[in-house]
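Design job #97: recover the sequence.
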């Protein structure tokens, strides 16, 4: 039988003979499901009487732009500016004219290029009319790429606050609540700047729950969080802001547009790809290969290493007792876990790695060499944190091979050094940028 997954990649490798290749196949299928060219067209409105302005930000920005350029009528005007992460612009298909400018900036800590892009995007909204259409292409990573500090904050302030949030273990909703209230463009403010034009937001979800107000800090959608919420989060994690800015938060001066604001009247938001859709595509590919698949959740959050331990407990129960799932099977999950950076001891080398690698260290330690269990955890954007790998593999002999290479798991956990641990045994999973982003992908194969 020929299916979408076999057309794209050929038949899945035999999971019993090539478990790692089989897991990689599932990842590729999941990523392919989230690419915008096959999903964006169904959500495009007709061209307006006026002009169409395209604005956006996110790791999938380059591929979303190219999909829109390919699908938008050739005789209908189209212009705009979208910012994406460095090295995340895919090769342009031959014969496809470029009508929308794409620029690059830093992620996950913002830089001056991101601020310049945000300033230009905001400037492009000037002079819009009710006859005009604004298409906003939003995907994960936009919070860092679209940086425009609130009055009283500098870019250096935003960089420090962003870095502290990333290292604190705060959830994505908490981080983006703070970002929205310390910005001149996030939390619905871009939509307000586009008035009176109609705004249609096309978004790829990278957050648990697929809340468009959280994705890229919701620049074009209403915000239900408050200045008080942002202050509580800053205090919870001990993050300081300049005194004048704190006073503006306390007074509510930095409040974001709310759902009842008239500025959002007539606006539309369409989710063109979600984590659940990608997990379902991977599950379908596994079943086509004769392996039953079970999706735990696409909304998993928590400390990465601890989530890894929970997955290990489930895999061991399946391996030992065939419960709650019969063998063989694949266990799939997604979401956005977090990593709390541990303080380094004197003389201790700085660790490298991201959420996926940290999950794999927790998983490997808790599996304790469990036979017949293989796993792959990777970020669907192809970048685990700030490294050049998407994630890592875990095999029944991970601990033994690492020990033979002189690597002690507890040492690497202590300094959050998943990259060094899995690099030493050749188990990093490297894909390069995938040009989409539906967040964490985890697959455990139990034979």
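Job complete. Output follows.
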């Amino acid at each position: 039988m020929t299916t979408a997954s076999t057309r794209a990649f050929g038949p899945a490798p035999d999971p019993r003979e090539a478990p790692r290749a089989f897991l990689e196949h599932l990842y590729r299928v999941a990523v392919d499901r989230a690419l915008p060219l096959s999903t964006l067209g169904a959500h495009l409105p007709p061209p307006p009487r006026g002009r169409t302005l395209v604005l956006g930000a996110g790791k999938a920005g380059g591929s979303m732009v190219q999909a829109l350029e390919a699908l938008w009528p050739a005789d209908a005007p189209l212009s705009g500016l979208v910012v994406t992460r460095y090295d995340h612009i895919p090769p342009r298909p031959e014969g496809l004219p470029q009508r929308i400018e794409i620029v690059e900036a830093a992620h996950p800590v913002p830089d001056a290029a991101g601020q310049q892009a945000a300033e230009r995007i905001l400037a492009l909204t000037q002079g819009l009319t009710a006859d005009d259409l604004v298409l906003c292409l939003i995907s994960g990573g936009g919070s860092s790429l679209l940086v425009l500090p609130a009055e009283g904050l500098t870019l250096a302030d935003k960089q420090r606050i962003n870095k502290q949030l990333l290292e604190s273990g705060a959830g994505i909703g908490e981080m983006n609540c703070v970002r929205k209230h310390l910005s001149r463009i996030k939390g619905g403010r871009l939509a307000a700047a586009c008035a009176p034009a109609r705004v249609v937001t096309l978004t790829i979800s990278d957050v648990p729950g697929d809340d468009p107000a959280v994705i890229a800090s919701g620049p074009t959608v209403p915000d239900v969080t408050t200045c008080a919420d942002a202050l509580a989060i800053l205090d919870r994690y001990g993050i300081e802001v300049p005194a004048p800015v704190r006073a503006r938060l306390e007074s509510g001066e930095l409040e974001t547009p709310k759902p009842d604001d008239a500025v959002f009247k007539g606006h539309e938001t369409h989710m063109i790809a979600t984590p659940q859709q990608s997990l379902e595509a991977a599950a379908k590919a596994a079943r086509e290969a004769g392996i039953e698949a079970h999706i735990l959740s696409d909304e998993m959050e928590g400390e990465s290493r601890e989530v890894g331990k929970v997955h290990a407990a489930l895999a061991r129960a399946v391996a030992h007792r065939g419960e709650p799932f019969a063998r063989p099977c694949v266990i799939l999950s997604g979401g956005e876990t977090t990593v709390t950076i541990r303080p380094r001891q004197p003389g201790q080398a700085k660790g490298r790695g991201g959420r996926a690698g940290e999950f794999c260290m927790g998983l490997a330690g808790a599996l304790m060499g469990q036979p017949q269990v293989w796993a792959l955890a990777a970020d669907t954007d192809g970048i685990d944190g700030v490294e050049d790998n998407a994630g890592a593999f875990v095999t029944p002999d991970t601990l033994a091979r690492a020990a033979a290479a002189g690597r002690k798991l507890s040492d690497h956990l202590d300094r959050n050094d998943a990259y060094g641990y899995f690099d030493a045994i050749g188990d990093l999973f490297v894909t390069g940028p995938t040009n989409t982003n539906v967040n964490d992908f985890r697959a455990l194969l139990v034979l």
